[in-house]
Amino acid sequence: MDHFTTQRPKNWLVESILVRIFCCLPFGIVGIINAANVNTKFDSGDIEGARRASAEAGKWTKIGFWVSIGFFVLYIGLMFLGVAGSLLSLAAFN
């Protein structure tokens, strides 16, 4: 495969930064590190290494996003149960 005819793999940098800021710090950092390696490896001619780095960046970015969504749903669920429990305890005493 020729370096000049091969399309550069997606680097996931923007998505990794957004996950790092808004979602999950550790997974976002791993995503950013791998995203930064995509362009470096591609520019040095390591096409397969760039593809692997892209896959890793995408994996960790998606994991960070979905873990954060899971924790958010769990948080909302626990808040709902806490409010419902408070209302039930108030109703029991009245």
Summarize the structure in short:
By secondary structure, this protein is mostly helical. 81% of the residues lie in helices and 0% in strands.
Question: Could you characterize the architecture of this molecule?
Answer:
- The protein has 94 residues and is an all-alpha fold.
- Helix 2 runs antiparallel to helix 3.
- It is built from three helices and no strands.
- Helices cover 81% and strands 0% of the residues.
- 27% of the residues are buried.
- The protein is rod-shaped, with a radius of gyration of 21 Å.
- It starts with 12 loop residues before the first helix and ends with a helix.
Keywords, separated by commas or semicolons:
single chain, 94 residues, mainly alpha
Helical content (DSSP H or I, runs of 4+) = over 70%
**Helix and strand succession?**
HHH
**End-to-end C-alpha gap:** 77 Å
Please outline the major beta sheet.
Answer: none
Topology:
Blueprint: H1 13-22, H2 25-43, H3 47-93
